[in-house]
Amino acid sequence: MDHAADALRTDLMTITRYLLKEQSRHLESRGDFTILLSHIVLGCKFVTLNKAGQAKLIGLSVQSNCVLVSEENEAAIFVDAPLRGKYCVCFDPLDGSSNIDYGVSIGTIFGIYMIKDKDNATLEDVLQPGTDMIAAGYCMYGSSCTLVLSTGNGVNGFTLDPSRGEFILTHPNIKIPNKGKIYSVNEGNARNWDAPTAKYAERCKFPQDGSSPKSLRYIGSMVADVHRTLLYGGIFLYPADKKSPSGKVRYADA
Q1: Does the structure show a pLDDT above 60 at 249?
Q2: For residue 10, what pLDDT is reported?
Q3: Tens digit of pLDDT for each residue in 87-132?
Q4: Into how many domains does the chain fold?
Q5: 234 CB contacts (<8 Å, ≥6 apart)?
Q6: Sign of the alpha-carbon dihedral angle for 63, 67, 71, 75
Q7: Residues 85, 202: one domain?
Q8: Confidence label for 248 from pLDDT (cuts 50, 70 and 90)
Q9: How many CB atoms lie within 10 A of CB 155?
Q10: Which domain holds residue 207?
Q11: C-alpha–C-alpha distance, residues 184 and 146, integer Å
Q12: C-beta atoms surrounding 252 within 10 Å
């Protein structure tokens, strides 16, 4: 590879260029949504540089938002009326943070809804079904910094190029393989699973049809486990058990 020539390329699809291209598909757009996503991208850059405090992340995009819901806060944050936008952002700022000391990949997860009435935002706006999301994604901080995003037109992955300070499109139009050889679950909780879940895990290890068993891979950071599942296929699950009867809303399968 000619790295010198690559450094001079001007045809790279940066995430900024991608967002502007997507915006151009909507003639009625005023750019608010693009600005909001750009601020989320900027926040992810600050996190990977360990400078999240400098970014004042909530303030960056507050004028595009009406409601902010964070996994780290008990209650939703309603933006003051004069500054309200038309979007609700739900996010986990640092999924897998308990793994930081071990150098394991962690990440930021986010989803965006349209507010039904920005003059009267309520919790109902953040309890809409996932099918009503207008964008969702995550940013994984590991050996590289990768941001995966969907705005309803496919799923695309961007990798941060430190030399440019830009996320570059490296995984266009991601599709989970039809078949996967990996299952990802915390088997330390197996004694608390219900019978169907335990039976499924047993079949992964000891298939009855003579096929090869699936390989167990479990990192304990949802972003990293889901990212692997998206690229290589398989299943990631966090099932209900006796300790958590409702399970957790974390599921990816192929």
Answers
A1: no
A2: 64
A3: 999 988 888 888 788 888 999 999 999 988 877 888 888 888 989 9
A4: 2
A5: 180, 181, 182, 183, 184, 214, 217, 228, 254
A6: positive
A7: no
A8: low
A9: 17
A10: 182-253
A11: 20
A12: 18
